Amino acid sequence: MLLTVTTTHRPASDLGYLLVKHPDKVHTFDVPTGTAYVMYPEVSDERCTAALMLDVDPQRLRAQRDAFELSQFVNDRPYAASSLLAGALSKVFRSALRGASKDRPELAATPLPLEIRVPVLRGTAELATRLFAPLGWEVEATEIPFEPEIGGDSRYVDLVLRGSLTLSAALNHLYVLLPVLDDAKHYWVAPDEIEKLLRSGQGWLAGHPDKVLIARRYLAHKRALTTTALQSLEGEEAEEPPAEEEAELPVVRRQSLAEQRRDAVLAALTEVGATRVLDLGCGGGALLGALMKDRRYTEVVGTDVSSRALEIAARKLRLDRLPERQRGRLKLWQSALTYRDDRLRGYDAAVLMEVIEHLDVPRLPALEASVFGHARPGAVVVTTPNAEYNVHYEGLTGMRHSDHRFEWTRAEFQDWASRTAQTYGYNVTFRTVGELDETTGSPTQLALFTLVASEVTA
């Protein structure tokens, strides 16, 4: 699979700074389905091209046989761009996707003349134009013909995009729309795929005329996930996708793992008698909504490092429509958990629900010092995935979310929690969340930290 990015912005070689890949080297990255390479076939002040090539390893795919929908077919088209390439792009160009550049911060925020080519991409020219043209791209999509003896056009196109956009915007368009055009994903699609879609679609997806199609295909035609994503985009109740395009069979309504996790957190907060609560890393505000519905919580604070996440939370909670008394119970603050924030001191309880796994392991001591040492709430509730349970998710390879930096086994989580509790003067107990398996445990693990009495009065 191949993707090239070309710019004529002078000096064009600055593209290497934005991608954080030196033009004089061939960069190699190991990914779950093969090896990714970044190289520069042309470099000058006038024109620079960076190429991302993914070499799919059939042996790794055979080892995961029947693990995902395309496993029996993927070797027939290892050259066609798909979610495999989008996943490699996410890993290899992580900083560029975020729009971060230590060496050229101003350039990262500047629209550049770009030409992007994907030589083989499954989809039609008409759909490629519908998806990319509204985003400011000039689209050239050429249908790839079959061999002359067969005749006609295949289901693949040679896609060329030209436009003036920031590199971050361009890469995020590709990250979302490559699997949308392919209309398939090589990994298990979980509810947290919604967060990935909203993050990468920030600033453009909500206004796209085909946002329903994009959400439906990106989320593997799962109606519940699609509806939730559209509601988050609109900040209000969204129409459900048309039933005729529904890919799931009707099933008896079961409480989702997200709902079970939320209820377990609420139960822990009730147990410790908390009334003033911090939701640290609150994201789109799912837990905040439940807390606001319970009058026992007199003050609820949601914090997140992402201003976009806080905007989504404010819309979902309809903050601007709440009565003044209700609105006074809720605060939304931008704050990073790895830095001390005096505003977070003195609360009854803090919640870290599916947060710690998004931090690099070397940053965890900073979080521990900030939350347990400086903010020092009376109780802390932490939930995180149980890596041992992942074997039950059909088609899941690697971790449950591309942004997860780690996923711990039960022993690893309990070791971390016990050391943290001892260091900062807390007691800790552990609970299971979700369906329990005798061998692998539950999908989510929960730790409840409570400040020891001597530390409360110290």
TrEMBL record:
Cofactor(s) recorded in Swiss-Prot or TrEMBL: Mg(2+)
BP term (GO), one: regulatory ncRNA-mediated gene silencing
Keyword RNA-binding in annotation: yes
Uppermost EC category: transferase
Record-level Gene Ontology MF annotations: metal ion binding; RNA binding; small RNA 2'-O-methyltransferase activity
Domain Hen1 N-terminal: 1-233
Keyword field contains S-adenosyl-L-methionine: yes
Location of the Methyltransferase type domain: 278-380
Enzyme Commission numbers on file: 2.1.1.386
Catalytic reaction list: small RNA 3'-end nucleotide + S-adenosyl-L-methionine = small RNA 3'-end 2'-O-methylnucleotide + S-adenosyl-L-homocysteine + H(+)
Family classification: Belongs to the methyltransferase superfamily. HEN1 family.
Annotated protein name in UniProt: Small RNA 2'-O-methyltransferase
Species in which this protein is naturally found: Paractinoplanes atraurantiacus
Phylogenetic placement of the source organism: Bacteria, Bacillati, Actinomycetota, Actinomycetes, Micromonosporales
